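Job type: complex structure
Entries:
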Amino acid sequence: MNSRTRPTGAAIRLDKAAFCYGEMSMRFDVEIEAAAITTVMGPSGSGKSTLLNLIAGFETPQSGRVLIGGKDVTEAPPAARPVSMVFQENNLFAHLTVQQNVGLGRSPSLRLTAGDHAAITQALARTGLAGKERRLPRELSGGERQRVALARVLVRDRPVLLLDEPFASLGPALREEMVDLVAGVHAESGMTVVFVTHQAEDARRMAGNMVFIEHGAVSATGKTSAFFGEHGPLSFRHYIGREAEEAQTTRGARKPT
Ligand code: ADP
Ligand code: MG
């Protein structure tokens, strides 16, 4: 796989991909549209992270297949897949500067060409980090650290971007800003974006498609606008209702799962 291939947004397909942790057995059968943003929601422990890990190759299905861009990658290691992933935290190396952390997206040994440096500068500007190149992760806010992770995604230039509750620890205003940044990056790059969130507002803001997961399987798919409309899937509406109640009682950022 050529890591410099321009992202054209590959479609993703999980073809009866089964995975089990102890007693929790999961089976995903779903198609994710190329070059679109798909938001994944579902209760804690329903299998959202497992779905992303199967796509990224951090887990291998016990049966079934994973296809990206029509190609069977079921047995391919993560590095051979056309995928970047951003987690809720710990995306960065603590001892490396912002510039170096982004540079890793181009070269694991940080042997960077003039072209690489130009791409890094551009990605840092795009994510609002110009002037912070020499800082270490601990000298950044939580939102800035996630911007660095996104800048690295930009220089990696892969067709698929997976985000596992990347903004769950940020406050609402900052989350809005970050969701808009992802949406903007998506519009410019045409990547296929799969975004896991607990927050209904994030999903609404992203628009695009929705995948709803319950008990280790996809229980509903469709346009985000239809999900939030009065004819949205009943199970989803119940879930959103429960989450809203919980948010009223806790009022804080919740832990990702
Ligand atoms: P979500 O991201 O939706 O909260 P996960 O995909 O992380 O859910 O987990 C799905 C199920 O698998 C849960 O029941 C969880 O307890 C279980 N699980 C996840 N990771 C592990 C693990 N490393 N070992 C054992 N069970 C796990
Ligand atoms: Mg999770």
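Summary: Confidence is low (pLDDT under 50) at residues 1-5. Residues 172-189 form the longest helix (18 residues).
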